[in-house]
């Protein structure tokens, strides 16, 4: 049962209510933003909640047990808070959102309705819809090790133990043939494909501080999985780290790190019973072995 503050309960018991919704958003980098569907700005718990964003509540759901509850908030991208570049750059991924029901005549009289994190953000033109996920969605996250043929570690982490310094280099953009494709000049010589699946981090330019995954590297071309959130210009600098496809052969031959491989490459998979027996003369097509 929800405990309702005495002042808020008294307001609800009155003949007329003056209520609005406020959203307090806190990003992982420490930036806090406030939004409200009221027609003027409100200061709630020391944070100014902007009224000019057009933010409003959309569909919401609540579930019993451990099912993930959540909802949506919709609004317009504007200079007052949310911008398309920041969203595309991942600044709002896993941001915490508090939803408050507030008496706009006395903002100190409020009730916390929900605590959620931002999930998928859908954008169309100058509008967006942000998915709010309840706290139970964290129960879906993978914990511990899983039995699979490929490695479960991230390249260079505490389990992998590869020193990334020899596998990282700097570079500069020389051209942008496509929004997600970059012509680059890399410091040092590297084989084609070394940075496929790697990580690019911008150090200079409009995208400084943002990072992106490399889809493909062919010589002096780097193709990213998604276009950078802000315009890229010739001369923009970055660092890029080699990629790893999580296979034992790559771990052994490229990184000489098979001793730390965190997968189970010799574990038979679901298709083991369908494989032909080495040295067998039979077709193994499901027919009789004696005819």
TrEMBL record:
Domain Bacteriophage phiJL001 Gp84 C-terminal positions: 193-271
Residues forming coiled coils: none
Transmembrane parts of this sequence: none
Protein name in UniProt: Bacteriophage phiJL001 Gp84 C-terminal domain-containing protein
